[in-house]
Amino acid sequence: MQSMSTTGTSTAAQAVTTLDEQTTPAADSTERPLTTADRCDVCDAQAYVRVVMLTGELFFCAHHARRHGERLKEVALLFQDETARLTADS
């Protein structure tokens, strides 16, 4: 009887570990400056928006970020918007 309890505890611990692994973001969820090397995942233009989700990160140019932004903000862990750089005074 005691071995069943140990097995049950072990299984529960494994389930918690698995759940924690599933909810850990695949990408870094802290902001970092976007560079010219960051490209839009839709059209390959320079990215000005970075969206971090549980499954990874996506990059968007200003055009595609405007098109999909509202929905992305609903599911994002981080919505990093640097589109203001396009109109900022130098």
Automatic annotation (TrEMBL):
Residues 1-27 have a biased composition (Polar residues). It comes from the Bacteria. Residues 1-34 are annotated as: Disordered. InterPro entries: DUF7455. Residues 34-86 form the DUF7455 domain. This is DUF7455 domain-containing protein. It comes from Actinomyces viscosus. The lineage of its organism: Bacteria, Bacillati, Actinomycetota, Actinomycetes, Actinomycetales.
